[in-house]
């Protein structure tokens, strides 16, 4: 089964969200879906996640390629 992102990146995303909420107690919404956050908290969280994600682009690409290779039966490199 193919999911929207490899498991290792989902784990990083969860860690980053936890860190964001710890660093920003002024916002309500911990544990809510991003779509349910009030606008200021949503924008701040998305900005934060975008900055973190840019730091792991190569890891992300490698993980996605590995997942696709597993689906299509190719050897991971």
Q: Secondary structure elements and their pairing?
A:
Blueprint: H1 7-23, H2 39-54, H3 57-72
Helix pairs in contact: 1-2
Describe the structure.
- It is a single chain.
- This protein is mainly α and 77 residues long.
- The protein has a domain at 45-77.
- Helices cover 64% and strands 0% of the residues.
- It is built from three helices and no strands.
- It has helices at 7-23, 39-54, 57-72.
- The longest helix has 17 residues, at 7-23.
- The chain is elongated and about 45 Å long.
- The protein starts with 6 loop residues before the first helix and ends in a 5-residue tail after the last helix.
Number of helices: 3
Tell me the span between the first and last alpha carbons. Answer: 21 Å
Shape: elongated
How helical, in percent, are the residues? 55-70%
Largest sheet: none
Strand percentage lies at under 5%
* Gyration radius, rounded: 15 Å
Order of helices and strands: HHH
Count the beta strands: 0
Mean pLDDT: 86
The structure class reads mainly alpha
Show unreliable segments: none
């Amino acid at each position: 089964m193919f999911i929207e992102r490899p498991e290792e990146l989902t784990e990083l995303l969860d860690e980053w969200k936890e860190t964001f909420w710890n660093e920003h107690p002024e916002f309500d919404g911990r544990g809510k879906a991003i779509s349910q956050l009030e606008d200021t908290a949503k924008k701040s969280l998305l900005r934060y996640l975008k900055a973190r994600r840019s730091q792991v682009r190569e890891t992300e690409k490698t993980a996605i390629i590995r997942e696709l290779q597993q689906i299509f039966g190719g050897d991971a490199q």
